[in-house]
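Lesson 9: reading folded outputs for more than one chain in a single document. The general rule is that every protein is listed as its sequence immediately followed by its structure tokens, and records are never interleaved. Here is the first one.
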Amino acid sequence: MGYLGFPTTFESALTDTDLLDRISTLEPHWTNLDHACTSGSGGAIYAQLSGSNINIDGSTFDRCSATQPGNGGALSLYQQTATSIISITNSLFKDCKTLSGSSSTYGWGGGIFLFTSISSNALSSSNLLMNDLAFIGCQSIIGGHNIHIRSPNTKETGLAISSNNLLTVNGTT
């Protein structure tokens, strides 16, 4: 069993938003999520963060998938407030994908889908940090084969992420 009693190989065990609302910090202690990850959104982890944290370090997401109308083959994260912290570091996303389904408006982010409601001038390494990530063979139906980030002002968010070094990728194939 993994952290908080979740099995280390699971089928969308972390999709219960009611459970996630009751914990302030989610720090998965497993290192390899292999093939057993399939869900509507976030094949391995789906989280709506409002004043809570998620910290993933040194993990491998292998063959995770999300089926439309979902997003995020491995991770689907919704950062609703500036007090919500997302930290994903030293992690590998291998052969993760979004799969065809009934909707042509979903299927973003083969490895990671992130929607942040935070204004671009409030983004910093204290609330969003995705460093030393690697992606191998990830695919999406719509766009963002490795990672897809959306926000109310995607251009300004992208500039803030770039200028503040909030995202680094060490390899893709």
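And here is the second record, again sequence then tokens.
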Amino acid sequence: MRENDIDKILIDFKHAAIENWTAQKNCDSKKANKYADKLIKIKEKLKKIGKLIVLKELLVESSPIVRSWAATYLLAEDENLAIKALEKLIAERGEKSFAAEMVLNEWRNGKLNP
């Protein structure tokens, strides 16, 4: 897979993460589910080609929504990096702090398989 293809996938991931969050805030479950499904498909595609680790590039994004999704999917790939990213989100006390805390709790309790 070419670098341009990976760049496009990461752009699509960022877009889907933000659209999912926007739909959730607007109580539009149909649209939120559509973008959640898109995020899952992107994750599965990256996993299939052995490139899931490229999501680490998104951990420096300004959007906490994008960082949260990327960190969640990276838990199984690079647990330490993902945990640090989620802990940072929690410490920021922003709009994704609670979600990041729940993801970490579920992961640590063995109830999450991203």
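What the second record shows: The chain has one domain: 3-108.
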